[in-house]
Amino acid sequence: MSNISKEEGFMSKNKWLLFLLYIMGVCAACTNEDVVRRKEGEVTIVPLWENYAGRFRPDKINYYFYNIYDHSSFPVVVEDSTGIGVITQVLPVGIYRLAGYNTNVSADVILDTTKYLTVVAKFPSYPYTDYVPLNLCIISSEEIIIYDKDVITKEILPVEVKTKSLELIFRPSEDITINQINGTLDGAFASINLVNGRAFEDESDIFFKVDDPVNNKKVKFRISDVYSPSAVGFPSYKESKLSLTLEVKEGGKTKTKKGEFILNDIIEDIRTNKIPDDAITLYVDISSYKKLEEKVNLDVTLSR
């Protein structure tokens, strides 16, 4: 009996030993996989406040790191509550876009973090109220490259984001009495890509309404930019356009008439001649369209 017990005990110990060796092998494999998966580097973001030309200072900054080629990963979000903005973050190897912005923005600004590889700031374009600064500052970069075991410092100049104004002045001909104007301005943006501070070009149509065009012949918009038809990547089919639907009084009756004007050439004129782009004024001449009663002629010119 004792010999059998010793043999059984020996076999039992061998089983446990084999089991432990198996577990150690699995753990070693897991460790090797972890090492491969966790190749990473360290980046420190340093805002250059000494060169900042803005009118205000942030009290809190959010940073969004977007891995450009790893679309399955969520952005790495880092908060800095000091307002200084110096942070150090460990990131998996890759190429990143950084959207950094202050959180104490104007109450009119909506920050959208659901967009692809960026954060977008949106603001009301119309009706235009007394000018209030966005109080929006970005500390961003379009490319940060992280290699394995990297320890890098990225110095970034903070930039205050500013908006522009676009004003339409309506000049109807003497033979037209307009009771109301409903319009669409397709060619201007009211949103900002916080990676680069430029207009976010996925959103462009601005709708407006003028209830008393007899006494109020102006409409003003707050915008981030206008379309640039000659820009790289601008779709060949895309046009910047002003569309108006008018309620016109004729012979004691109210009629609806429509008109359109392509703004591509005017926008090119603005950019080519470097018209001050913080205040753009366009004159909109409205006249009867002889061939079709339901249409009007629009002619838009740039104020210089």
TrEMBL record:
**What is this protein called in UniProt?**
DUF5119 domain-containing protein
Q: Which organism is it from?
A: termite gut metagenome
